[in-house]
Structures are given as structure tokens and as C-alpha cells.
Amino acid sequence: METKLVQQQLFKNALGNYPTGVTVVTATTEENLPVGLTVNSFASVSLDPLLILWSIDHRVSTLKTFTEGGKFGVHILAGDQQELCKTFSSKHEDRFSTCTWSQSELGVPVIEGAFAVLECTTHQAIEAGDHTILIGAVQNISIDESKNPMLYHRRHFGEIPAEFYPVMI
To answer: Model pTM?
Structure first.
């Protein structure tokens, strides 16, 4: 048993040092209430058709809403949205009271201020260990080119450093 715990800690240490972007994924309950959570297990899957994926822990209280709801929105957070990121990763009961949002034509909550929003219908759900991988078919994309995306590394959130961008001459 100890070896398993050691391996899990090494796994967390290794992946916690892998820089990623940060997203907030949103959906609506059967009662049409907005729900959302911070997710960094996000990736592109396919260009034809447009597919993305993210994974959700089986212990999340809104698991059924996301796995059975048929649609969700993925918000690629902007570098200045650290507070929003923290709120949606916390136990805060009414996360949507802390931000400005609206319901899209597809019926998913869209939070203002994100770098990009991908509105998706569920293409496939795959059970994988203690998570479910959700593959989304992208139906609508909006991007705010004036913003830069957020970066997550070693449990810290922030804007992508300026030195990552080429110098314009």
C-alpha cells in the first residue's frame, strides 16, 4: 500500500510541474441552474470534426450534470482571472454570484472575460479510473484576441510571461 501512495505522490509532483492552461467548464442542471468548476485536464482531440476533451473526478457533486447533460462550455481563462479560477475550484456554494455571465443560445452558461469560450455538445464519455473523460464536439467558438490566456504551474496561476512572446520590430 505504501508503494501505491508513494507512486501517487510522485505522479502528482511530476504532473504538477507540467505547465498547463486553465479552464472553467460550465453547464446547467435539470433545474436550469448554472454549475461550473476549474479544470486543467483540457486538450484538443481532432480538427475534423472539432473535438476537445477534459476529465472530471467521480467525487464532484455535479458529476451527473456534466456527464449526462449533453452540453457544456469550456472557458480558457484569461491571465487576469485568478480570482475566478480560485472561486470555481473552491467549495463556494454560489460561484456564479461572483462573476458576470449569460446563457448562450446552446444553453450553457458563458462567463464574461475569458480568453476563449468553446461551447460543446457531448460527443463521448469514457470511464477512466476515478475520472470520466468527456469529449466535446465544438459547436461555437469565441475568442477575445485582446487578452492572453492563463498559465498554471506548481500550484500558481498567472499570465504567460512577456518573454514567451517574440519581440516585434
So the answer is: 0.90
